[in-house]
Structures are given as structure tokens and as C-alpha cells.
Specification:
mainly alpha, MetI-like fold, about 70% helix
């Protein structure tokens, strides 16, 4: 059966792919229809691009939310990548057989649970603020620095960084520990110092995997709702939070604007996914 010319991996995946494409296609069609004003629930069937004009106008909150989402996504991804690279290099040292239990333990917590924990510890009425006040470091808990629910998204970034560092570290460790030859040891024997080994040996080894992981992290953060909704403020809002605000508006006509924002999010995430696949294909060709 497996030698039959019609038997291919795509044929084996056909049922699952068909179901996925039908559900995804229906969702995209529904979003596209409502974005152009086709709202059958209120009897509005006239196609109009008023929602696109309203969202993409220079005065729209969309641009502020887009900048905020890009800032949070890029900052979280960059900080997570740098720390994950340092951790992976430290854990992969030949004289250090450190366990990765702490990394796996962190990954077991959902993002929402992790965000709630940060809120309990880092808010101005949280545990750290109360401990600082009881120790005399600050007079009252409200003098504690604003680290969550701030307009710069510091709390949101801290939440994502705490969750994505273990994910990226495990990816980089899998690359470093899969090498049959310790190239950094060879470079050290040839006289390369620690910085030269990191720059010319380690980073080129892990860069394709790191870029692919970064794109996945960026796409996830950019499209995520629960963390910015819990740890963010009412202005500026992340794009998913703004989209849901339009969708839950009592005026059902506002759904069109929410669907426009959702389609923009989907388009950006799709572009990120395509770039990630291209990087993976290029890596496979180079390895082959």
C-alpha cells in the first residue's frame, strides 16, 4: 500500500487538513464579509468599506494600538532571545550537566496563570509592595514602582519574557547538544577567546533556529489577547484587545471595525509564518 504512487504524506494528512482548511476558510470568509459591512444579524447586506476607512484613518486608535503591539512583541522577543542565548550557552558547557527541569516547569504554566501570578506579586497592592512597605523600604505600598498595568506595557513584556525564555532556551539547547563535534572547544584550542567563540562559532550554529523561534514567539505575542487584557491599560491597548472591544460593542455595526483589525492581525501573523517556513526550508537545504 505504501508503495502505491497515490500514497503520499499529503494523502495521509488529507482528512485533518481538510477539516482545518474548512474551519479556517469559513472563519476568514465570515470575517471578510463582516469587515465590508455584511451583517446579516441586523439585516445589513450592503457592501461598504466604511469600516476600513474608519480604522485606517490617521485619527484612529488603530495606529496607536498597532505601535503598542509591535513594541511589546519586538521588545519581548528581543529580550527573551538575548537571555535565552546566554542561558543556552551556559547550560551547554561541557563541564556543566545542568538539568532543564526549571525550564520545563515554567512551560507547564499557561500564560494566563503566569500573568495572574505577576499581578499578585508586582502590582502596587501586591506581595512585593507590601513586603517593601513592611521592611521600611517604602512608606506605603502605593509608592512601589508601577510594573503592571502601565502605559508602556512593562508588565506585559515581563510576563511574555518570563514565559518565552524557557521556550527559546530549549530550542537552542537542542541545537547545541545535538552537535557531534564541540566546535567551541576546537576554537578554544586554536586560541579563540570566549567572545570570539560566541560570535564566530556558537551564534552561527544557533542563528537559524533562533530566528525561527523568534518569529514564532513574535507571531504568538502579536496575536495574543489574555495577557495584555489582564496586565495592560485601557489606553494604549493591544490590537487583539481593541478588536474584541469593537466586537463586544452594543452597536452591532461596530463589529465590522473589529473584523478589519482581526484581518490585519491575521495578515501580519501569516507573513511571519511564511518567513519562518522560508527560514526552515533554507536551513534544511543548507544541512542537506
Amino acid at each position: 500500500m505504501r508503495s502505491h504512487p497515490l500514497f503520499t504524506p499529503w494523502l495521509s494528512l488529507a482528512p485533518a487538513l481538510t477539516l482545518l482548511l474548512v474551519l479556517l476558510g469559513a472563519s476568514l470568509f465570515y470575517a471578510a464579509a463582516e469587515s465590508v459591512g455584511y451583517l446579516n444579524a441586523i439585516g445589513q447586506t450592503t457592501v461598504t468599506f466604511d469600516a476600513y476607512r474608519a480604522i485606517l484613518s490617521p485619527q484612529s486608535e488603530f495606529w496607536v494600538s498597532l505601535g503598542f503591539s509591535l513594541w511589546v512583541s519586538l521588545a519581548s522577543t528581543f529580550i527573551s532571545s538575548v537571555i535565552a542565548l546566554m542561558l543556552a550557552v551556559w547550560l551547554s558547557a561541557p563541564n556543566r550537566n545542568a538539568d532543564t527541569f526549571a525550564l520545563n516547569w515554567n512551560l507547564a504554566f499557561p500564560h494566563l496563570v503566569w500573568s495572574v501570578a505577576l499581578l499578585l506579586f508586582l502590582s502596587q497592592s501586591g506581595l512585593f509592595a507590601r513586603w517593601a512597605a513592611s521592611l521600611g523600604m517604602i512608606a506605603t505600598p502605593d509608592q512601589f514602582p508601577v510594573l503592571v498595568r502601565d502605559r508602556y506595557g512593562v508588565g506585559v513584556i515581563l510576563s511574555y519574557v518570563g514565559k518565552e525564555i524557557p521556550f527559546l532556551t530549549i530550542i537552542l539547547l537542542s541545537v547545541l547538544r545535538s552537535q557531534s563535534i564541540r566546535y567551541d572547544v576546537v576554537a578554544e584550542n586554536l586560541g579563540a577567546n570566549r567572545w570570539q567563540r560566541l560570535r564566530y562559532v556558537t551564534i552561527p550554529q544557533v542563528l537559524p533556529a533562533l530566528l525561527a523561534g523568534d518569529l514564532l514567539v513574535f507571531g504568538f505575542i502579536f496575536s495574543s489577547y489574555e495577557v495584555p487584557a489582564l496586565l495592560g491599560v485601557s489606553y494604549p491597548r493591544a490590537l487583539p484587545v481593541l478588536a474584541l472591544r469593537f466586537f463586544l460593542d452594543p452597536d452591532l455595526r461596530a463589529r465590522s471595525e473589529g473584523m478589519v483589525i482581526s484581518l490585519v492581525i491575521a495578515l501580519i501573523v501569516l507573513i511571519v509564518a511564511v518567513v519562518s517556513l522560508r527560514i526552515e526550508e533554507r536551513k534544511e537545504k543548507e544541512a542537506g
